[in-house]
């Protein structure tokens, strides 16, 4: 098995009988309205990937893990003229990927349910699908030539890795995201010290997630991929050089892992786009001459930014007053349509203010309780959530050039909230498309309806708790305990305080924890038929804040 790194989360895996190209993000336009650019740059690999997907003699597959544009690159895929390959996509409730490739004109499209196995000569490809609320993702495993590659990219399946390995067997090469990919705290108006503190905790939390994944998977090699992007827009360029943020590079991760897992036999690899790895020997068959290092990083980014400067000159222009008026009216209508379909509106206890920078005295106030959007001259609520954005950026959402989640990931907005508490329904209101709002609400209700409980031991005591995390449904029986009192979700590292009835440290959710007063000598305490997975062992580690907000 040969694995060619295509940059970011992209790979081309070749076995004796098959080729699988994974998440090729190669367009020179980057992603999220050019806010994210590939790091290191990989645009030169586009002809090579086109050649691979057109090479006869092997069964060829294109795998797209999810809809985010740093994985699903319609601009590059449109350049493929020969399309006699099979497309593998996860089967989500939202059928955007299936519908896109149904129109695309390839050999066939296989929409895979969770754990769907697709046979290839001498092995198989297997997809693992995860879908909770607004979070949709998947992972892929390729087994062939006596080796196995598991690529979970951004997929939050950490709570099921141990079970996957027990069912699938040993993994030779493993890859998982190690860098942040969210707008908190990046877009929030925090004091510098607060921003650095939140970023540091999130970075360390992400590193800890990788460490625990490696403990579960125990691969022979870990490939650092799905790392940070380059931010080349002049308005975002400073993000590349912050002392502390949620976008660390691979050397920082490797330093952490060497201390955290000093006895681990796993090799840590940081390939450059175009490097080819032999999965059997773990040796690079070939490596590209240009390497991005800690020493040349700043100069590399400055040259890269100059080369791409035209993208940001072309996208900006001054708007006329009438245009701003029209955009404000359209945004008002869009927010009201969302609100009309948000049948969980009464859960949001604060208003949302939306301000166009071109019209600072004409704010839109979203009143969730009254289910009404109104125009006001200023913010009048102390308890509130606020978003500030330029009309020239938000109009691209209204024109359907990018969706709401892509816009949030563009980082071209400023956010604030008081109190500084994550509110899942409000978060969903911002990020979910109008057409998906009812499904978002139904999914949240369905997740909350899961009342199965499990038992955890912490600080020498036993507690019964809800088994599934109220955030996005992760299995807490695969979690752990910190400081003898906090249950930690294995997917997003949320903490729940067993000494406070399982209340979350970050918002108002709870595991409804109850102490067990007696510990029977044989078996487990009766829980009305509840499933009883193994207890979570206590782990004494410093607490971490949740990585998503």
TrEMBL record:
Keywords: 2Fe-2S, Iron, Iron-sulfur, Metal-binding. It holds the Pfam family Lactamase_B_3. SUPFAM superfamilies: ISP domain, Metallo-hydrolase/oxidoreductase. Residues 514-549 are annotated as: Disordered. PROSITE patterns: RIESKE. The keyword Magnesium does not apply. Residues 516-533 have a biased composition (Basic and acidic residues). Residues 455-504 form the Rieske domain. Transmembrane segments: none annotated. This is MBL fold metallo-hydrolase.
């Amino acid at each position: 098995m040969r694995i060619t790194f295509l940059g970011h989360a992209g790979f081309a895996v070749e076995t004796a009988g098959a080729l699988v190209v994974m998440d090729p993000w190669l367009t020179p336009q980057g992603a999220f309205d050019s806010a994210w650019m590939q790091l290191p740059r990989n645009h030169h690999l586009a002809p090579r990937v086109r050649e691979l997907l057109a090479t006869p003699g092997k069964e060829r597959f294109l795998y797209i893990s999810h809809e985010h544009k740093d994985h699903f690159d319609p601009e590059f895929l449109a350049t493929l003229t020969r399309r006699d390959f099979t497309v593998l996509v996860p089967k989500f409730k939202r059928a955007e990927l299936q519908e896109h490739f149904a129109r695309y004109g390839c050999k066939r499209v296989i929409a895979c349910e969770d754990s769907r196995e697709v046979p290839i000569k001498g092995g198989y490809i297997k997809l693992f699908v995860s879908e909770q609320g607004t979070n949709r993702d998947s992972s892929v495993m390729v087994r062939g030539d006596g080796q196995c590659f598991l690529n979970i990219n951004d997929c939050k399946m950490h709570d099921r890795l141990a079970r996957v390995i027990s069912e699938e067997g040993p993994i030779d090469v493993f890859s998982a995201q190690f860098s942040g990919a969210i707008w908190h705290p990046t877009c929030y108006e925090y004091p510098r010290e607060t921003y650095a503190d939140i970023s540091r905790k999130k970075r360390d939390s992400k590193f800890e997630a990788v460490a625990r994944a490696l403990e579960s998977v125990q691969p022979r090699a870990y490939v650092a991929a799905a790392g940070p992007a380059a931010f080349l827009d002049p308005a975002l360029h400073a993000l590349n050089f912050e002392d502390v943020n949620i976008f660390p590079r691979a050397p920082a991760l490797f330093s952490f892992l060497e201390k955290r897992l000093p006895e681990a036999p796993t090799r840590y690899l940081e390939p450059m786009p175009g490097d080819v790895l032999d999965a059997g020997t773990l040796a690079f068959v070939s490596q590209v001459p240009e390497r991005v290092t800690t020493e040349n990083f700043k100069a590399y980014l400055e040259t890269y930014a100059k080369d791409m400067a035209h993208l940001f000159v072309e996208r900006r222009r001054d708007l006329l007053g009438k245009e701003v008026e029209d955009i404000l009216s359209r945004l008002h209508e869009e927010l009201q349509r969302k609100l009309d379909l948000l049948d969980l509106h009464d859960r949001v206890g604060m208003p949302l203010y939306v301000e166009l920078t071109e019209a600072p005295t004409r704010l839109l106030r979203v009143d969730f309780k009254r289910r009404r959007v109104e125009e006001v001259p200023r913010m009048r609520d102390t308890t509130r959530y606020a978003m500030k954005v330029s009309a020239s950026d938000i109009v691209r959402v209204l024109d359907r050039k990018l969706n709401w989640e892509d816009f949030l990931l563009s980082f071209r907005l400023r956010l604030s909230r008081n109190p500084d508490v994550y509110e899942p329904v409000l978060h969903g209101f911002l990020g979910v498309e109008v057409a998906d709002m009812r499904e978002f609400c139904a999914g949240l209700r369905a997740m909350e309806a899961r009342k199965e409980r499990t038992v955890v031991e912490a600080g020498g005591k036993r507690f019964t708790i809800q088994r599934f995390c109220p955030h996005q449904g992760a299995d807490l029986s695969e979690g752990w305990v910190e400081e003898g009192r906090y249950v930690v979700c294995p997917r997003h590292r949320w903490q729940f305080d067993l000494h406070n009835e399982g209340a979350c440290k970050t918002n108002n959710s709870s595991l409804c924890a109850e102490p067990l007063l007696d510990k029977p000598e044989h078996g487990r305490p009766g829980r009305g038929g509840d499933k009883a997975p193994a207890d979570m062992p206590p782990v004494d580690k410093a607490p971490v804040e949740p990585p998503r907000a």
